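During the reporting period the student researcher (J.K.) took over the structure-prediction task from the postdoctoral fellow and processed the backlog of single-chain submissions. One of the processed entries is reproduced below for the supervisory committee.
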Amino acid sequence: MGIFNPIEVVQRLSQKLDFTYHFWRYLFLLVFFLTLPFLSGILPIVHFTDEQIDIQVFPEHVVMQATYVYQNPYPFPVVQGLSVPFPIDSDHPTPILLSARQLGTQPKLLETRYLLGRHRFNVFFKANERVQVAVEYRQQAPQQNAIYLLTTTQPWKRPLQKGLYRLLPQQVVITDSNYALESAGQHHLSFKREHFMPQEDWSFSWKVN
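J.K. obtained the following C-alpha cells:
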C-alpha cells in the first residue's frame, strides 16, 4: 500500500485544472475567430433577396429610407452581422441620425456599433426565417448631388431578386441620374430591377425648384 501524498494529489489536480482552463480558453478563441467574419458582416450566412430604397431629396440634404429583406436558408437559427456602408467624400459628409429597426409583428430597434470602419448590427434569424430590416439616415448634400451605394450587393455573391429605387423630391427638381428614371406618381421618380447585381452605384443630382 502506497503512502498518501497530499502534495502530489494537489499537483495532479492543478495540472488537470490547468489543462481544462487552457482547453476552454482556446476553444472560445477558436469559436470567436470562426464566427467573427459572420457577426461583423464581412461574410454572409443568410441571403440578401430584396430591397426598396426611398430617398427624400431636399435642397441641401437627403433622407434615405431603406427596407432590406433577408432569408435564412438553413433549418436552424443563425445570427448575421450586417453593416451600413456610406458614400463619404468632401461633398458628402458622414451621415447623421442613423437608425435600424427589425420589422414584423413585433418591431424592435437594432443596436448599432461602429466597428472596422462601418456602423454594424446583428440580426437573429429563426430557422428558414425571412426578416425585413429598415434603415434610415440623413446626409448633407451642399453640392446638390448624392450617391447611394448599390455595388455593396456584390459581396453577397447573389443578385437581388428584385429592387425598387425611388426619389421623392421636396421642393427640388431632379436633373440627372445615371440610372434611367420613370415617373411614378405626381412627385416620385423611380427605377426597378429584377435579378439585379449592380455594377455601378446610383448617383443623381437636382436643382432647387
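The committee noted the following: Residues 47-208 form a domain with the Immunoglobulin-like fold (CATH 2.60.40.3680).
J.K. will present the remaining backlog at the next meeting.
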